What we know:
alpha/beta; Rossmann fold; 8-stranded mixed β-sheet; two-stranded antiparallel sheet; 10 strands; globular
Amino acid sequence: xxxxxxxxxxxxxxxxxxxxxxxxxxxxxxxxxxxxxxxxxxxxxxxxxxxxxxxxxxxxxxxxxxxxxxxxxxxxxxxxxxxxxxxxxxxxxxxxxxxxxxxxxxxxxxxxxxxxxxxxxxxxxxxxxxxxxxxxxxxxxxxxxxxxxxxxxxxxxxxxxxxxxxxxxxxxxxxxxxxxxxxxxxxxxxxxxxxxxxxxxxxxxxxxx
Length: 209
């Protein structure tokens, strides 16, 4: 991403996980976000453009961004585990990189949003989350957990109107029982082609509130 992007190998439950750390200019940060990438079996990695856009938005707003490859992806050891082991991977990265004395945020794209949702129950109430961002939430393909009510004001759910990978209707069906707002971007599909600057701006606006 930039000169402040560093490789960060992390110990996971099934071996080493390939990771990267993106730092704001000057190296000073107000908190840490851990970002989860799309489905491992369909080309999802920490280098995904939406994942990188999430990292950029956080870094530009003074956060340290941690990206990593789930087990079996890239140089990460282990094998795909249908979401179960991937939740364990995420938890191990959070525990290794997030200080309890600093603000913490989580963000996930597609399958990564599902994994992030499953991790919330393990984190709360012991850990305090400042921000939570779901993009292209894979609600049609996985059992995405509800967002705890106390996090609703800190949560941003973004979805493309014409997403042909995860239909908007499935995300609304997930969000409706929770009365959880969903921000819909007109004319945008799953990977936000041509609209990554808009995605970054929407995330930045949420981080500043």
